[in-house]
Amino acid sequence: MKHLQFWFDPISPYAYLAFEQLPQALEGLSYSVDYRPVLFAGLLKQWGQKGPAEIEPKRAWTFRQIAWASHRFGIAVDTPAQHPFNPLALLRLLHASAAAGGAPNRRACELVLRHVWRGGADANDAQRLEALHTELAPPRDPADEAVKQSLKDLTAQAIERGVFGVPTIELDGRLFWGLDALEMVAACLRGDPWFDGPAWDAAAAARPGVRRG
Fold first, then answer.
1. How far from chain centre, in Å, is Cα 158?
2. How many domains does one find in the chain?
3. What's the CA gap between 68 and 186, in Å, rounded?
4. Domain containing 82: what range?
5. Does the structure show a pLDDT above 80 at 211?
6. Residues 6+ apart with CB under 8 A from 173
7. What span, in angstroms and rounded, lies between the C-alpha atoms of 151 and 162?
8. What is the mean pLDDT of residues 159-174?
9. Domain assignment of residue 81, yes or no
10. Strands 168-171 and 31-37
């Protein structure tokens, strides 16, 4: 059985769709998953990027593409009332739902992702957050300093591994970024010989070129 790590932030519609599509995309394959909630904004800061929603033409395209993916996969998507939003409350709730040093289970991740991406409501509405907290019944307090530090540590760990965006699936030390990478993950799990040859490393080799100052 192969082991996957699913790095995500509930602020990302691609992370939501990849989470929902994962069982179908990997149907019939032997694997387990650890869900790793991290702060996407921390990744963006590290790598000097803006989020898709911060660039207006890219924001418009992102949500058109999400609407198409929703249609294609038959997965309900409703953009939250405010986006982008601060996901810290949700991320800390996910970390609080796991034992210290552990990972949230799939049910906890599903509840949080669907809280954001179904219904079109405000993800940070106080009453909705309270109801979500009650449903999850986390064993730890999301406001606890240890929980906050857990999120910081996991985000730092993601950066150390080269994670630059969400969702990212890690398999055998390889990083697969984005909803459209699910097909590659499935192929790798099936033992496609392409992954055993030189192509993976060769494709990523740096070429000399013009660099912006």
1. 11
2. 1
3. 22
4. 2-204
5. no
6. none
7. 17
8. 97
9. yes
10. unpaired
